[in-house]
Amino acid sequence: MGKSKKQKHNRLSHGPYDKHHTKKGAPHLKNEAKASSQSQKRNVHQSPTIPFAPSDRILLIGEGDFSFAHTLYSHHECHSLVATCYDSASQLTEKYPQSATFIQDLENAAGEDEDVDIVIVYQVDATKLGKAGSSAGGGKAIKKGGFDRVIFNFPHVGGVTKDVNRQVRHNQELLVNFFKASIPLLAPNGTIVVTVFEGEPYSLWNIRDLARHVGLKVGRSFKFQADAYPGYKHARTLGNITGDGGWKGEDRDARTYIFERKDDGTTGTQPVKRKKGNGTSSDSDEDG
Asked: What pTM value is reported for the model?
């Protein structure tokens, strides 16, 4: 303690608050130390939280160019994936030409390694998952269920209307019906993971309330960090944006919510926190 006080004294006696301003220098130093402490905490809190484990059986809904599915396999070593998209194969290639490479890599991996179980399913409607007699339900790959994680990144109905209130209602309907369709597909202690942008109009969706009305609760939420998924690029619903005029979704603030069934007694597998820097990995953005 004595050594720490001496260091503070030396700093003050040689700083801009020397002699007549020594008394004003003390609070200045405290503020500076406080700011430094807050900066260190912010760096700690930036450690990304990963809401799944490599051993999880994962269902991905609404993949755009399949770059997220690709990074789950190639970077996070998830080997049990059912990755789906709303578009047909031809529509997908037209909207996202880069998707062909990602899908080929995933299919090659599944074909070459018996321990890799990756299935690509086209024309899957998020509101009809596993529905019998509907091709939009995804067929046997989805219907058999048993998923530890059902993940839907940045759900959106697309440009149905320019009216904000109607857009909000359409997206709320999408989420409610997605939740209802997903619940029967969950393994014991399985969770539904949804990531949405922060701010309006997304905050108007009231995603927590929507989930509560269908028997779900928020187990936790945290800041989505795109850099935790190398190679991932946010795909716009309408397709690639050419030129420099389009915004990049991966650069926008977004939040991930982990939804649990209210009747589950446990929270299941805890999300993985990636360590950075000094090895600390707390996340101040988490809430229950």
From this structure: 0.76
